[in-house]
From TrEMBL:
Superkingdom of this protein's organism: Bacteria
The N-acetyltransferase domain, residue ranges: 7-164
Name of the protein in its database record: GNAT family N-acetyltransferase
Alphabetized PANTHER family for the sequence: AMINOALKYLPHOSPHONATE N-ACETYLTRANSFERASE-RELATED-RELATED
Species whose genome carries this gene: Amycolatopsis echigonensis
Keyword Acyltransferase included in the entry's annotation: yes
UniProt cross-references to Pfam families, sorted A to Z: Acetyltransf_1 (PF00583)
InterPro entries with a match to the protein in the record: Acyl_CoA_acyltransferase, Bact_Acetyltransf, GNAT_dom
Gene3D superfamilies the UniProt entry points to: 3.40.630.30
Keywords: Acyltransferase, Transferase
Length: 164
């Protein structure tokens, strides 16, 4: 596929949060089918959520001529202090999405590189990601590796909790 020219990768501006929300809606629609609910309401609520969580969830966007082509969030989580360090933080890459017409052109890799630079700027001791099968090779190319020590447990949440 021909590379898609990207004007830049940067922190999302407030006026771009609706476009980021629309990408999230599109992602769910692409993977799970049309989401229930009102799209405009979701966009408003998502943008409000992103504003309210801006300190803990830094959103990067890939743009071309002011059009948002992709997004990635870095979630910042304080860690329990050690006797040597009271300011430990780790990061989790979340919600990476590139519009289908810009996939396989390097945009996702640029977002991953930018997330890792952002993480380094915060002095994070580690960054994790829960990846789709399709994106695993991209993360591996950018320095992520499989960890024998990182485990997860899927919690069985009652349906009444997931629908609220």
């Amino acid at each position: 596929m021909k590379p898609v020219p990207v004007t830049g990768i940067r922190l999302a501006r407030d006026d771009e949060l609706a476009a980021v929300a629309a990408l999230r809606w599109r992602w769910v629609e692409d993977s799970d089918g049309l989401p229930q609910g009102d799209r405009a309401e979701f966009v408003r609520e998502f943008a409000a959520w992103a504003r309210a969580h801006a300190e803990t969830h830094r959103c990067l966007v890939a743009v071309r001529d002011e059009q948002v082509l992709g997004m990635a969030f870095l979630a910042l989580t304080p860690r329990v202090p050690t006797p040597h360090d009271f300011s430990r933080i780790c990061g989790d890459v979340q919600c990476v999405y590139v519009v289908p017409e810009a996939r396989d052109s390097g945009v996702g890799g640029l977002l991953i590189e930018a997330i890792l630079r952002l993480a380094a700027g915060f002095g994070l001791e580690r960054v994790t990601v829960h990846s789709s099968d399709r994106a695993i090779p991209a993360y591996l190319r950018h320095g992520f590796s499989v960890s024998k020590n990182l485990l997860q447990s899927v919690i069985d949440v009652p349906a009444s909790r997931t629908n609220s």
